[in-house]
Amino acid sequence: MTTEQIIRDQLDRATRDVPGGPDLETAIVSGRRRRLQRRGGLAVAAVAVLGLGATGVHAMVGGDGKTVVHDGGRPVPMAGAPAGPTDYVPGTDIDQKLAAVIAQHLPTLPAPDDVYPSDRHTAGPMPDADWASADDWQATYTENGNEVLLITGTPSEGSLTCDGDCHHVAGGTMFHQSSSTVDQGTHRWYFGTFFYRPDGTFTNAWEIVNANDEATAESQRHVTDTDLAALVQDPGLTFAALGAVAH
Description:
With 247 residues, this protein is an alpha+beta fold. It has one domain. It has helices at residues 3-15, 24-30, 33-39, 94-105, 214-219, 225-232, 239-242, and strands spanning 58-59, 68-71, 74-77, 86-87, 114-118, 136-143, 146-153, 167-169, 172-183, 186-196, 202-210. Strands 5-6-7-11-10-9-8 form a 7-stranded antiparallel β-sheet. Strands 1-4 form a two-stranded antiparallel sheet. A two-stranded antiparallel sheet has the order 2-3. Strand 10 and strand 11 (202-210) form a beta hairpin.
């Protein structure tokens, strides 16, 4: 399997709603809809590149019984209630560890839209209850109209063939690749940074920008390739460091 095929599969699974459903260009708009409905969140405008919106997630408070109110689908503690890390996937802290590592490298990003488990046979998130069976974990963000998507996981099916401008770096192989899609006249540019380790595990990240041409999209980026390169190489994003089980 070539690098491009592996990347396409990862990105397609991250943005598709159901297996055998619409192609990537259509699913980019609606790919998160299933999870938003399941979480009870409030969907934002369809201009969001990955169809991401405010997700109704669980805010952890200090166990003191303080009242929690909902604002736009995201719980907000009442005044005086201690805030805690958001629990995107009940029953594990992998989601919180993942978000914390990303926050260290990209501190200007807001809180994630979502953090969730997936596997190579599932389009988008798998059920929260099945998190222990995940082949990869994904985190999605929205910043001033741009999207950031990170996927970290166990070896992909097939062997990796680096067919681009690859660089051998400490701990693995790094490369950058940009691509684009057109959906109903809207151009979406995907600026990807990819890191594969000798054991086949990987951490890949994209910034996705709406723009008519690549030069304009580049000028509208909020995250640089250098930022993403430092992020994907962080050893804290491996399954072992996150406490996830490789299958």
